[in-house]
Amino acid sequence: MKVVLKDLRKTYEGGKVVAVDDVSLEIRDGEFFSFLGPSGCGKTTTLRLIAGFEYPDKGSIFIGDEEVTFKKPYERNTAMVFQNYALWPHMTVYENIAYGLKIRKVREEEQRKRIREVLELVKLTGLENRYPTQLSGGQQQRVALARALVVQPKVLLLDEPLSNLDAKVRIEVREEIKRIQRELKITTIYVTHDQEEAMSISDRIAVMNQGRIAQIGTPEELYFSPRELFVASFFGKPNILDGIYLGEGKAEIQGGVEMGITPAAGQKELERGDKLKIVIRPEHIYIRGRLLQIRSGSSAEGSS
Prior knowledge:
Helix content: 25-40%
Radius of gyration: 23 Å
Number of helices: 8
Largest sheet: 6 strands, mixed
Shape: elongated
Structural class: alpha/beta
Order of helices and strands: EEEHEEEHHHEHEHEEHHEEEEEEEE
Number of strands: 18
């Protein structure tokens, strides 16, 4: 089920705070798509607009061929996994997972069948009678994921689902989420501020900054072909140097050193004398004898 956003805008405080600023994109059927960016960039607000927990000031949201811009969350056939799990502490694992099915008045026999299948899918079989307080953080997150999947949504939404887990468990659970997504072939929209997390599990990523989409691409495209300095500096630990364009694919950096450059994707045509920001990834630098060399692959963005 594809998801299409057209010219979405969302403001708060009477329009003074712009959270989402004219966002348009298409998420493909069965794709694992992530919104990535620093705190306050608008990624969670965009997810909440898709879920129906917020309504836009303008713009449209389509799930499949149906416009759902102002429909209630339960009318969109989506399911959300929250950052804080949002499990009922007085309910067992089984009862938490069954909650959405009961609201939808699914027959008892069908409930048991679906819950049994989803428990096996998230590897929680045998823990259905435990309470959330008797589970580890990773297990609680799996319960939240199972509760979302058991209602058989067309689109799965995840809002920083791993941020409360320690590093080792975070890696294990994210691998499980990707495995389940591939197995079910469900369209999945994931929000995170963790670059490594997004790069490891996403088919494509939308990098957001100040309510706008800076760039959309595969992890490889964003890392090796950033279209602006914000995107280049957001991934990894690049070296960023000031330079002057000399023409013919060459630039001069501090100390009068000349080097070859490759313009960033979408860069306007450079002219001699243009000021540049030259981005060099650590893996493009190697030492041969006493000579420091830079492999081809460094990119430059004009600032004039």
